[in-house]
Amino acid sequence: MKVSWNLFSGLALFYLLLAVIYWKVGGEAVGITALTLSGGLAGLVGFYIWYSAKAMGGVLPEDNRVAEIADGAGDLGFYSPHSWWPLLVALSACGAGLGLIIGWWLTLIALGALIFSIIGFVTENEHPSHSQH
User: Fold this and answer.
1) Residues 130, 133: Cα–Cα separation, whole Å
2) Predicted confidence band at 128 (pLDDT cuts at 50, 70, 90)?
3) Which residues contact 59 (CB under 8 A, 6 or more apart)?
4) Mean pLDDT (whole number) for 22-32
5) CB 109 within 8 A of CB 95
6) For residues 98 and 73, is the Cβ–Cβ distance under 8 A?
7) Among 10, 2, 12, CA closest to 56
8) Minimal CA–CA distance to 1: which of 44, 42, 38, 48?
9) CB atoms within 10 A of CB 37
């Protein structure tokens, strides 16, 4: 896991350094933005892998040369079997984008729907605990 986050952190630094060089040489704004955002994305992935590795104890079965296939067995996490919320998030985000073209009124309605659908998507698997007597 150490190699993975080092790779992405190195890519982030490389892209950001390249963006500065490109800016100093006189590059266009779109190229500078693309290189900076690429560095940010690589940095986010590197941070996520580093944080996940720290939470798991640092050594994964994939990193151990003498590990067996069974060493990687077990629960990988909870995944919702089905959900309609991603569709509602996508439709409301599309409506917000169209609202920028059509009119501000549609953007306001779509942003309200977007906030509602994001809250529903994030909290769909949270159930209040009921005491069983």
Assistant:
1) 9
2) low
3) 1
4) 93
5) yes
6) no
7) 2
8) 48
9) 12
| 132 pLDDT higher than 60 | no
Token digits of residue 106: 């549609």
Whole-structure pTM value: 0.57
From residue 49, alpha-carbon distances to 34, 54, 71, 85, 101 in Å are 23, 9, 20, 27, 38
Compute the C-alpha angle 102/107/108, nearest 5°.
140
Could you give the CA distance from residue 50 to residue 68 in angstroms, rounded to a whole number? 24
Q: Which two tokens stand for residue 130?
A: 């009921």
Residues 50, 9: Cα–Cα separation, whole Å = 9
Q: For tokens 């390249």, what's the residue?
A: 18
Percent of the chain with pLDDT over 90: 59
